[in-house]
Design a protein that fits this description.
This protein is an all-alpha fold and about 290 residues long. The protein is built from 14 helices and no strands. α2 packs antiparallel against α3 and α13 runs antiparallel to α14.
């Protein structure tokens, strides 16, 4: 059962076809044993039932992730449309705008790089700043290893490409809640969450790039960025290290906002990571001392 649960839904479906064919052959006496009273026949039925149960659980987990991520669509649509508008205003054509969204698929990094390039910052500064902004994806990946690390390399690469804030946030929260999900169910849940976000991101970017000039100036979509990240960050404030890192980042931005090319963002991010890590180390040491006392 454990081995079967680690297979993808496609593999499970193929396995069921093979088992059905084999079961039919045994029923008609074409395989060794034959006969309706063959004890192996009952084992075959139970195996097929177990495959069906895994398939149903995997499909259920997929739709659970899909539904859990649905509220973020209200934010993703204006957020992605705003990027399309800003990219066209910065001089990118529709193909370049879509290429950036499809290849990068990281809203905060895309806005950061685009803003810096528009301000005349050197390309290496824009790329480095965007990379720093996107370092959170490395943290996301490390957090998902215990849950999705069992998957094949190709599946893990697909997860890495479709790594978005919203899908990660809902997936990690669900993985820590009862009832626990099996390996295949965890993968299905993540792709269910991702499948709802990414198409809307692509479509919203295209709509903004094509219709940006037709959108009235009074219909501002700037609200989407802060609302999106507040919705993502607020539920994550579950421990002191998280709070310390968040507060440090805010203070850092306020102190270093005057640095050129938005370098204050890099400084604030580095300070926040150090502060959060040091707070976590301090808490672990204090817990260890209490255990020895």
């Amino acid at each position: 059962m454990q081995e079967l649960s680690e297979r993808s839904t496609c593999q499970i479906a193929k396995k069921r076809v093979v088992l059905d064919s084999y079961l039919g052959a045994r029923r008609h006496g074409l395989c060794c044993g034959g006969g309706s009273n063959d004890p192996c026949l009952e084992q075959d039925r139970r195996l097929i039932q177990s495959v069906d149960v895994v398939h149903m659980k995997t499909r259920s987990a997929f739709w659970e992730g899909f539904i859990d991520c649905a509220p973020f669509i209200v934010i993703v649509i204006p957020y992605s449309m705003m990027f399309g508008v800003v990219a066209r205003d910065a001089g990118l054509d529709v193909l370049q705008t879509m290429g950036m969204s499809v290849l990068v698929i990281a809203g905060a990094s895309q806005f950061t790089a685009l803003t810096l390039l528009s301000e005349g910052a050197p390309v290496f500064v824009a790329l480095f700043t965007a990379l720093v902004v996107n370092l959170r994806m490395a943290i996301y990946s490390a957090a998902l290893v215990p849950h999705l690390g069992h998957a094949r390399l190709g599946m893990r690469a697909l997860v890495a490409y479709f790594m978005v804030d919203q899908a990660f946030a809902v997936a990690v929260k669900r993985y820590e809640l009862p009832p626990p999900l099996g390996p295949a169910e965890r993968m299905a849940y993540y792709f269910g969450a991702m499948l709802l976000i990414c198409p809307f991101w692509y479509g919203g970017t295209l709509a903004g790039a094509l219709l940006g000039q037709a959108i009235p100036a009074s219909l501002s979509m700037d609200f989407a960025v802060p609302v999106c990240f507040i919705a993502l960050v607020a539920p994550a404030m579950r421990s002191l290290p998280h709070v310390v890192a968040a507060v440090t980042s805010v203070i850092g931005i306020l102190l270093f906002h005057s640095l050129p090319w938005s370098l204050g963002l890099i400084v604030a991010a580095l300070l926040a990571m150090v502060a959060g890590a040091q707070t976590e180390l301090y808490m672990r040491r204090r817990t260890a001392k209490r255990g020895l006392a």
